[in-house]
Design brief:
Number of strands: 15
Strand content: 15-25%
Distance between the termini: 35 Å
Largest sheet: 6 strands, mixed
Number of helices: 11
Number of domains: 3
């Protein structure tokens, strides 16, 4: 049975910023009280970017347009025009390039405005502002937003002022996807099931440590069993996150697990979840003998803070921590930096 976790939307925004390799977005919110950051607040930041782009001028580009016309222009499409000629209609099908606002950047902008105008987490006055901007973009085609729509664009000197708008639009899109998976959302907090949150947090940790430290290479590591026999029947050993020191014989293997309770109970005795410990310990036992290796398990905080360390030998240790995703972002940041020291 899946369990749910409450996470402030401000922290989800920060997690997604790292996952999508946009940590600079978090810095742009540094002048704002964390308790004020809601879905509606982020939507208003998006509208500020739309207004900024409008002042700079909406981008236009040459777009290929195919139409029936009695005024010949561009390239005449003979095959497409044959039926019209046989019907003795005084028109031809022509293809021409028009300088239009209907380009992918503006399509994403309009689609995001449409999404916000229909979202229950957005205040009425914000939705009204979205409608007004949608009217100004009447010549822009309506599209269905997908992740691909954000990834297919490239930036250069002439369109760089669109970049922040596109990044915030992507954050809003992904927050909306998460809200559809789990329905109990408010302006400031979200409830996510353990599976969705576990996947998101694993990706976040990977990118967080890739950005926020310089001593380790961050990767997903696949190991071979140190067993003789038919290897094809053995399960794959793949770490969530491996941090390999660039200059020294050191490694950290990290795993995030999301359970409502960090402990299991057996005959009234509380202990850490055995299968998580066994799995991580197996990974540690399959490292080279000349490497100092730390195994780290991270659980969500559930009222009991855990900072436990266990040592197997001079070179192998295991650590277990809890991190509260309801904490301030600064608190989460400092805890994760501490864990990796």
């Amino acid at each position: 049975m899946s369990q749910t976790f409450k996470v402030p939307i401000r922290n989800l925004f920060c997690l997604l910023s790292y996952v999508n390799e946009m940590p600079e977005l978090i810095e742009s919110f540094n002048d704002v009280d964390e308790d004020l950051i809601s879905y509606d607040f982020i939507a208003n930041r998006f509208l500020q970017e739309v207004e900024y782009i409008h002042k700079k001028g909406f981008l236009k580009n040459y777009v290929s347009v195919v139409e029936q016309t009695d005024k010949l222009a561009g390239r005449i499409l003979i095959n497409e025009s044959l039926n019209l000629l046989l019907a003795k209609r005084p028109v031809m099908v022509c293809e021409k390039d028009d300088y239009l606002i209907n380009i992918p950047f503006n399509q994403v902008m309009k689609a995001t405005l449409t999404m916000l105008s229909r979202n229950r987490l957005v205040k009425k006055e914000t939705r009204i502002r979205c409608y007004k901007w949608m009217e100004r973009l009447g010549q822009v085609e309506d599209i269905a937003l997908t992740k691909h729509m954000f990834l297919r664009n490239t930036y250069h000197r002439n369109n760089l002022y669109y970049k922040r708008m596109m990044h915030i639009a992507l954050m809003l899109y992904e927050l909306t996807l998460l809200s559809h998976k789990s329905g109990n959302w408010s302006l400031f907090t979200a409830e996510l099931d353990d599976s969705a949150l576990n996947q998101l947090f694993e990706k976040f940790l990977f990118h967080f440590y890739r950005v926020e430290q310089q001593d380790y290479r961050v990767s997903v590591e696949q190991m071979q069993w140190k067993l003789a026999g038919n290897q094809s029947l053995l399960p794959t050993m793949r770490t969530d996150i491996s941090l390999t020191h660039k200059y020294e014989k050191q490694k950290i293997i990290m795993d995030a697990k999301f359970y409502k309770n960090v402990f299991q109970e057996y005959y009234g005795k509380a202990s850490f979840h055995s299968h998580n410990m066994y799995q991580l310990f197996t990974y540690l036992m399959h490292q080279d003998d000349d490497i100092q290796v730390r195994g780290i398990l991270i659980y969500p905080f559930n009222g009991t803070e855990v900072n436990e360390k266990y040592r197997w030998s001079d070179r192998v240790s295991m650590e277990i921590y809890t991190v509260s995703l309801e904490d301030s972002w600064q608190g989460i940041y400092e805890k994760l930096k501490f864990i990796c020291k």
